Amino acid sequence: MELYVLRHGTTKWNEKHLLQGRSDIPLDEGGIRLAQIVGEKLKDVSFDICYSSPLARALQTAQLVLGGRSVSIVEDPRLMEMSFGEAEGRDVSASSTAVPKELLYALSGHMENYPVPEGGESVRQVYIRTARFIQDLLENPDNNEKRILISTHGAAGRALMHHFWGGDFWHGNVPPNCSFCIVTIDHCKVTSIEKDIVLYDPSLVTNLFGGK
Questions:
Q1: Which of 80, 132, 137, 209 is 20 to 30 Å from 203 by CA-CA measure?
Q2: Alpha-carbon distance 4 to 84, whole Å?
Q3: What spatial distance separates the first Cα and last Cα of the chain, rounded to whole Å?
């Protein structure tokens, strides 16, 4: 089994450093272009099935990466982004005063100290739901020889990958938009992991964000 764990393309909220979570924000023009580029780069990779978060930005990314290929896209709510509750829509740039400093500290790489905002999910809750998704994949023998695309989000994707590589939540960094990890599994045993593969010129994102 080979899993391609993909983060969605950019959105207007990414550009403005707003915390998205469960807010259903579509891809912006740049995000659409990034997904198209990745799709072109992966055109010779044959996927058997795709699982996607039902949020628009992840679903659009899956559709664009797959292009016109006859690959089923199955929406699975367990792949939705972490809910940040009342903090969603707020500025989380390094200099922001819109959220508590403790939240910025956690999001910058210290999720072991994550203070759950009102109405939000805990790290443990995200670990549990993504673990159930992975368990279902691994327990289905029909998946043993499949190559599977998983279109998800920054935090949800890192929670999912945690089940393969352990360690701290972010594993060093938030995954870039439209980057993906490849996990190769042989009969429930991980044989290799490739982290945060970027198939486009990173300066594209800088240019699309107007120099930010």
A1: 80
A2: 25
A3: 38
| Contact status, residue 108 vs residue 169, Cβ threshold 8 Å | no
What is the β-pairing status of strands 147-152 and 49-52?
parallel
Other Cβ atoms closer than 10 A to 110: 14
Q: Which amino acid is at 122?
A: S
What are the structure tokens assigned to 38, written together?
A: 């990745």
Per DSSP bridges, beta strands 189-197 and 180-186 are antiparallel
Residues in the chain: 212
pLDDT one digit per residue (tens) for the chain, 212 residues: 999 999 999 999 998 999 999 999 999 999 999 999 999 999 999 999 999 999 999 999 999 999 989 999 999 999 999 999 999 999 998 888 999 999 999 998 899 989 999 999 999 999 999 999 999 999 999 999 999 999 999 999 999 999 999 999 999 999 999 999 999 999 889 999 999 999 998 887 755 544 33
Model pTM?
A: 0.95
CA–CA gap between residue 191 and residue 206 (Å, rounded): 35
Residue numbers annotated as active site: 8, 81
CA-to-CA distance for 54 and 48, rounded, in angstroms? 19
C-alpha closest to that of 5 among 196, 205, 202, 199: 196
**Beta bridge pairs of residue 184:** 2, 192
Contact 38, 199 (CB under 8 A): yes
